[in-house]
Design a protein that fits this description.
alpha/beta, 9-stranded mixed beta sheet, binds 2-acetamido-2-deoxy-beta-D-glucopyranose, transmembrane, Leu-rich_rpt_typical-subtyp, signal, cell wall
Length: 286
Amino acid sequence: MGFSTSKRVLILVPLILLVISLSSLNAASNFIDEARSLLKWKASLNQTNPLLSSWILYPGNATNTSSSSHLETNASPCSWHGIRCNKAGRVHVVNLTSYGLKGMLQEFPFSSLPQLAHVDLSVNELYGIIPPQIGHLSKLIYLDLQINLLSGKIPPEIGLLTNLTTLHLSENKLNGSIPRDMCQLRLLEELALHMNRLDDSIPSCLGNLTNLFWLSLYNNSLSGSIPREIGKLSNLVELDLDTNHLTGSIPSTLGYLKKLTVLHIFDNQLSGPIPEEIGNLESLWI
Ligand SMILES: *[C@@H]1O[C@H](CO)[C@@H](O)[C@H](O)[C@H]1NC(C)=O
Ligand SMILES: *[C@@H]1O[C@H](CO)[C@@H](O)[C@H](O)[C@H]1NC(C)=O
Ligand SMILES: *[C@@H]1O[C@H](CO)[C@@H](O)[C@H](O)[C@H]1NC(C)=O
Ligand SMILES: *[C@@H]1O[C@H](CO)[C@@H](O)[C@H](O)[C@H]1NC(C)=O
Ligand SMILES: *[C@@H]1O[C@H](CO)[C@@H](O)[C@H](O)[C@H]1NC(C)=O
Ligand SMILES: *[C@@H]1O[C@H](CO)[C@@H](O)[C@H](O)[C@H]1NC(C)=O
Ligand SMILES: *[C@@H]1O[C@H](CO)[C@@H](O)[C@H](O)[C@H]1NC(C)=O
Ligand SMILES: *[C@@H]1O[C@H](CO)[C@@H](O)[C@H](O)[C@H]1NC(C)=O
């Protein structure tokens, strides 16, 4: 009895040690995978930003390899400029706004950064399409790609990012229609698609995004009428639909937007009177 118990313990101890060392190895290799995937994207970019010289795998000198924490501290991207990690050391924020990046999003590690929640790549010279793989970033809360040179259609896969509260794709060269899939983004508070080349009509299902407080679609080639359903956006503070090819009359349902303070609808082909209901709105700037 005593013999077999101690024998079991003897077998268990190395097993536990093996499990512990395997899981710490696993954590370290996660950091390295995340770092490598970011470096692969960096290598695809044409950039000369000195801040990005902090993006290297082993900043320490090779003479320091004896340190046991070497692998984890040096291979982790958490200390790189523009990167922030969560407590578990996984990449949580990529913020490279105004870094002078020239290149495409094709090599961006959409599938290698499972904890990524905030992406700000605004004000760079990113061109080419927004890859459909962007739909893999399921933890994303904040996505800002504004003021770049991105073209092609907005991928419908963006509708998979149901945790998004902020989506800024404005001031690019995006064309095609506003995907209906965007109406799945129920937590969205800010949707900015202005200054692109979007055409077709405004999807009426955008009226389901009842958390929106800013909807900005100005300076595109949107046609058709302003959907009555926009009147369901009861949290809307600013609505910018100007400089498009919108036709028809201004829906009276806009009168339900009690929080609206800015309504921009000029420079369209709208007809008919301004509905009385809109006149009832307090604190409105047209
Ligand atoms: C990188 O950008 C510079 C300046 O715009 C340009 O001269 C060079 O050809 C580009 N290199 C590549 C590989 O695109
Ligand atoms: C090597 O490690 C020592 C002690 O941790 C540190 O003082 C030194 O700056 C390191 N050298 C390099 C080149 O990282
Ligand atoms: C490593 O450290 C030595 C001595 O401090 C230095 O001469 C060498 O350039 C360093 N190597 C790198 C890759 O930083
Ligand atoms: C990104 O960095 C800029 C400038 O440092 C800052 O204003 C902005 O709030 C940051 N965005 C995110 C999502 O952290
Ligand atoms: C949204 O975030 C929560 C919490 O991080 C996560 O559990 C959930 O899977 C995310 N949603 C999607 C569609 O992945
Ligand atoms: C949309 O933009 C892409 C890429 O610039 C272009 O190839 C395509 O012809 C454009 N489509 C339309 C309908 O303009
Ligand atoms: C609309 O946007 C284009 C660039 O996309 C810009 O050149 C033009 O001046 C803008 N028009 C207005 C009226 O803002
Ligand atoms: C979303 O909006 C569309 C069109 O306005 C409507 O038919 C649909 O029932 C709405 N869906 C939900 C879940 O509210």
